Amino acid sequence: MELKEKIVSSYLAFENDVDINSEIHDIRTEAFHNFEKLGFPTKKLEAWKYTSLNSVLKNDFSIFPNKENAIEFADVKKYFIHDIDTYKVVFIDGKYSSFLSDTTHDGKDVCLMSSALSKSKYKAVIENYFNKIAKQDNLTSLNTAFANEGAYIYIPKNVEVEKPIQIINFTTGNDAATMVQPRNLIVVEENAHVQIIERHQSLTENAVLTNVVTEIFSAKNSTVDYYKIQNDKDNASLVDNTYIEQKTNSVVSVHTFSFGGNITRNNLNFYQRGEHIDSILKGITIIEGKQHVDHHTLVHHIEPNCESHQDYKGIFDARSTGVFNGKVIVDKEAQKTNAYQQNNNVLISDKATINAKPQLEIFADDVKCSHGCTIGQLDEDALFYMQQRGIPKKEGKALLMYAFANTVLESVKIPEVKQRINKLIATKLGVNIGFDL
Prior knowledge:
Blueprint: H1 3-17, H2 22-38, H3 54-57, H4 73-76, E1 87-92, E2 95-96, E3 109-112, H5 113-118, H6 123-129, H7 138-145, E4 151-155, E5 165-171, E6 177-180, E7 183-188, E8 193-202, E9 207-218, E10 223-231, E11 236-246, E12 251-260, E13 263-272, E14 278-287, E15 292-301, E16 307-316, E17 321-330, E18 338-347, E19 353-356, E20 359-362, E21 368-376, H8 380-388, H9 393-409, H10 415-429
Parallel strand pairs: 1-5, 4-7, 5-8, 6-9, 7-9, 8-10, 9-11, 10-12, 11-13, 12-14, 13-15, 14-16, 15-17, 16-18, 17-19, 17-20, 18-21
Antiparallel strand pairs: 1-2, 3-4
Helix pairs in contact: 2-7, 8-9
């Protein structure tokens, strides 16, 4: 049975098992019919021109894990940012792990999507925010149809969350192939501030497909600092759909670190609905083998006097493939917009590939917008200079690549996250450099 047919046949049973209100049921049903009509994306679609899911979809994925699998903290400690105290929302094979989690309702809600969808005390927030900015495309609709579990984070007005929040999804491989579909909703009210770290991690050699959707609402004068750490096994594929709506004077930054996995597709969408908004999108990709990472970004400037800043660095070795498709749309009313987009790539191997497509669609006449893209190799003169001063070639290459990525790392606001990313980069480059950027 093809995966689409399996999903269609599983939907009715899923709906019968979950406790949801009629409005959520209608949202699910509409999304299900949309996916049934669209199916999985193919390379015939312009947005998926350079990324094919065919090899992934051939697996006989289990839609619902057969049983729960316990995990000891000691076995997965390395996947947490454990150097600091954090709230934690942890899932194992798509199911909540109370043992590994540390949630709260003390002046804010850091808890479960399943509770928010089913309990009346969350009804107002769900009605106002759930599925309001998520696109009705193939994989987002599929996630919406089966949306039940994930992180629910609500930060009221004037609350600065005292410690970061970690959202971690583990897959254990009880089945030969597992598909999970987390759904996250994050609402940050006026003058509130939160830092969030998200990770999806396979613990098995079996195939894994994660199709995650996250909706983030950043109200007036709020700040959201979001980090995505993607360093999974070669058997794990990830489609990450993130939708962000910002209001006046808000600042939202998303850092995406893509270091591993089979196929990784990041769809990151910002919608600016107010003035004096700042949107920051930064990323580092370092991959090898036959790994594939595809960044699709959208910043939609709707009102005047706003800024956006995109800076993506890519380092590609062996037969790896990178894709960067960054789009900036400036509406006619969005005068005084300042939009910057930069994508720089280094190909370590002659067989590595990068497909870059920066895009600007500007309908206003009083704006400052720029975009740039570079594809090249390491500076041989700089490498020779370092070797002349006693630095071995391997370490010299690593230093140059560290410097190349520094413009992204310097804006990381959580020191422990910055240290972790530095270690991951050093591991990917196969060196041990004793300093932090």
